[in-house]
Design goal:
By secondary structure, this protein is an alpha+beta fold. The chain has one helix and five strands; from the N terminus they run ββββαβ. It has one helix at about 40-50, and strands at about 5-10, 15-20, 25-30, 35, 65-70.
Length: about 80
């Protein structure tokens, strides 16, 4: 059963779908999509944590919210 998430702050929202096999679909409010296999998602996580983490040092992540939502709450974009 896929899981659906809404990740947002005061300016942006991103919708994430994680399927049973671990593949990830990331969609922005404009409907642009990025499809990642389980292995690509693993590499992406590594890249964010190790290579571009400098970009996020001063970012205030306390204002970012993540919540699991139902399939019917996903936008049709």
């Amino acid at each position: 059963m896929p899981k659906y998430y809404k990740i947002y702050d005061s300016k942006e929202v991103v919708y994430v779908t994680v399927d049973d096999g671990g593949a990830v679909i990331i969609r922005d409010a404009a409907g642009r999509k990025v499809f990642l296999t389980k292995y690509q998602a693993k590499i992406m996580k590594f890249g964010i944590e190790n290579l571009i983490s400098e970009l996020f040092k001063d970012a205030d992540s306390s204002k970012v919210n993540a919540e699991e939502i139902k399939a019917e709450d996903m936008p049709n974009a």
